[in-house]
Amino acid sequence: MTIRLAKITDILDRLIKIKKYTTTFNLITFKEPKVKRSLLLSSLTLGILIGCGGSNNTDTPPIDEQRIPKLNDIKVSAAPLIKASEFQFSQNLKNGLFKRYQARLSSYDAPENDATASPSTSKDFSQTNQQEQNVDEADRIKYDGEFLFIAANSFHDIDHDSNEGENYIRIMQRNEKGEMNPIQNLTYSDVHSSDQQLYLHDNTLAILNFSPSYFSFPIANDMAATVEPFFYYGDNEFELSLVDVSQPSQAAIKHQFKIEGGLIDSRVIDGSLYLVSNYHPNFTGFDTSNNDEATVLANYQNLSKVQLAELTPNITNTATQDSEELVTPDNCYISSDTSDKDGFDSIITITKVNLSNPEQRESLCINTNIYGIYASENALYTHGTVSQDDTVKTVIHKFDLASDTLEYTATGAVEGHLGRGPENLRFSEFNNDLRIVTTTNLPFNESAGFSPFKHQLFVLQQQENSLAPIAKLPNDTYPTPIGKTNEQGLVDENIYAVRFSEDRAFIVTFRQIDPLYVVDLADKTKPKIAGALEIPGYSAYLHPVSENLLLGIGQNIQDWQAPNAQEVENGAKVTLFDISDITNPKVVNEKVFANAYTPAEWDYKSLSFLATGSGVLRFTMPVETWQSQSDNNTSYLWHRVSELASFEIDTTEAPALNYLGSSKVDYSSISSESAPYVWGGLDRAVIHSDDLYYIHGNYIWHSLWQTPSDNKGPL
């Protein structure tokens, strides 16, 4: 029988417009001259739409509200995404909400209430340290060469006497002498004690005010291969404020929005702000006073009647209080293997905001789960984990940013999770391929007495809508594991740092000593470990300095498992590696801060870099130490030392790491009772020519670059 393509297309278009029904389709591919189209043909078995508005049409088959549906457990799929119909999206979301409600019933007997790489630059001042060039990342300070914007909180003010911490922006101006002077404190929100992140684009300061999310993966044990990670998404709303700073002394809010959902991460690329958020619908219609069948059925009936718009996130203009949908159902995706028995109870939204015209924005959503993002100039990748066949896999969805509109393009999955540290540093896009390093926690090994690790590097290539692995390490040609092994060949070292630089990858594993692995990716189909170096301690952050030099920041730790090992001084460590010969990486020199730590181990934005024209790279790193003093030999008084260490790296023919000294926080000019406590993880710095500005809390300590210890502050 001959079926004309145009006729079938017309039939399908008519079916799609009928919102009371959905159809179960089989995939058939039709070919006509110079035409290839994949059409979804129906057996015309109609499924009932739950909650897309309903209808009084008497021809509509009645919704079966006399049965509690038997739904599959909530899960994350590794399948490619498809754009969902309004029915599919509504059904998947409501199934997830109802399944989560049922899971709570089985878990609790009592009633429960629902509760709501540093870019190269020709400028003479440092900017936010970021992973990819031209992909800006949010931070608590931004600087344009004259004006410094600090995300401040009144808890960190000197003589703060309130129980509440008020967020504000402290605006400082640098004069011709290099002095920093305050010009305005901008109060922009009534939301207190939340995290603040800033972007500066042209004359617009973007402020993100949010409750942070927390992610943790299970500690290695015999269940680690199958246990899902824990993720806390913070509050179900965040705030975006756009401030006109064309005249910073008169800075004022020009747009402010409250966005429903928890902020996961963000980036600014080519003047557009990309926000990735997770919204959990706050459906309050479940009666939790009883868990008998009648009550559960009534709850199902209540949920089925809810309009979809009541379950999706809104964006509200705080000036006008006008609200609208953040994303519409016609721009939402679900996994292609989703059945009518599946569901997921949260909505991931990717929103693009034009910083020059914030009313020009677009969003798409995914009815699945993610934990974080990685972004290149042309693509944004989301990642999450899924348990399949007793193995944890990382699922990656790719979205194209090169066109004028957001567009989903592909999905891939690889064995393992992203472990400790900044997950985005385990990714790298290079020549349109995606590289990723993962870790698998293997079951506890009785004879070895520990749970081994399996570390792998994958190269993924987009093939239609799939991110397909084209290579991995270890492989048949190069089977050497990543990480040191015991006598049984089991890896007992976890990954502490990963960094990619063009056709090379650098991986640090650690248990008692630090093997630095250099991976050769010149032939992307045959990655191999080219060389390795073992030194005491570990690097938690790696920073490519040049083609021949690599910077490592972490801890110096004594190897207690080797009784004959040379004794080392424990503390924060900065190491310069010579990687000119990738088969034989070497230590150029290092600096250790005894009994100290640096926030740069987990937050690379605490580092500041500035390249000079003479082959010297300047950089700063915050360091925090707790020291004790005896009091008449009967007790000890502990005090904290916060400092900003200054370094120069000579990148010429005789490379070297040189420590110049530290700018230290000093409150001696005020009473000790008035000095605020500020966590070292908030420390930042700006290097501008020969001026150094150490930002600790809300204040600045200013010194000249060559004499950092001779500072002036707090300013």
From TrEMBL:
<protein>
    <recommendedName>
        <fullName>Beta-propeller domain-containing protein</fullName>
    </recommendedName>
</protein>
<dbReference type="Pfam" id="PF09826">
    <property type="entry name" value="Beta_propel"/>
</dbReference>
<dbReference type="InterPro" id="IPR019198">
    <property type="entry name" value="Beta_propeller_containing"/>
</dbReference>
<feature type="compositionally biased region" description="Polar residues">
    <location>
        <begin position="115"/>
        <end position="133"/>
    </location>
</feature>
<feature type="region of interest" description="Disordered">
    <location>
        <begin position="109"/>
        <end position="135"/>
    </location>
</feature>
